[in-house]
Design brief:
mainly alpha; about 200 residues; two-stranded antiparallel ribbon; single chain; about 5% strand
């Protein structure tokens, strides 16, 4: 493969525009650039998550997701192009089913908290949702394939599940748990039902 990046500081964006992969220039505030930026930010947050201890199966999955997000970013940077394949969404569905099956059913809402790895997975979840909203906004103006929206939607769900997996992972072999939300309203309802 030849060198693709020969110069980083081009100064061509000093006027508030950026170049797309098809050599057109658009405002840095365009919906397409917002979507590209959110996907890039999500990929970077996954890179931070990968700095944490985790099961090797989760690590391999996240590395594959980083490559798919790079494909997604490339697809967004070239209007009308397709890089992210529908099989990538199916891979997330498979991962969701596999990891969800190993978790206990949720009885209450959980907080985005716990271990650093789990908390960072929750950050990835929220950035994935923002990237999904950016793609939906772009779809309102330009024709896009369904796969980018579906991939980000499914990835946000998967990051929630992986946060639960990571809250259980301990390098000493012990098993952790979710961090549950203590709702005052729910506590009152429980107290009222106990006294009636």
């Amino acid at each position: 493969m030849g060198n693709r990046l020969t110069q980083i500081a081009t100064r061509t964006g000093d006027n508030g525009t950026t170049g797309l992969g098809d050599n057109t220039r658009v405002s840095k505030n365009s919906l397409r650039v917002h979507a590209m930026g959110d996907v890039d930010e999500l990929n970077s947050h996954i890179g931070v998550l990968l700095c944490e201890p985790m099961p090797e199966a989760v690590r391999s999955l996240l590395i594959e997701i980083q490559h798919e997000l790079f494909n997604l970013g490339g697809e967004l940077s070239i209007p009308g192009f397709e890089l992210l394949k529908p099989q990538a969404v199916l891979a997330l569905d498979d991962a969701l089913a596999e990891h969800n099956a190993a978790l206990p059913k949720l009885q209450e809402f959980i907080l985005p908290a716990g271990t650093r790895a789990a908390s960072q997975a929750h950050v990835c979840r929220t950035v994935a949702r923002r990237a999904e909203r950016a793609v939906v906004a772009l779809e309102g103006q330009e024709a896009l394939k369904d796969t980018p929206r579906q991939y980000l939607n499914r990835l946000s769900d998967l990051m929630f599940v992986l946060a639960r997996v990571l809250n259980r992972h301990r390098s000493d072999g012990s098993v952790g748990d979710d961090v549950y939300w203590h709702s005052t309203r729910m506590a009152r309802a429980d107290a009222d039902s106990a006294t009636s």
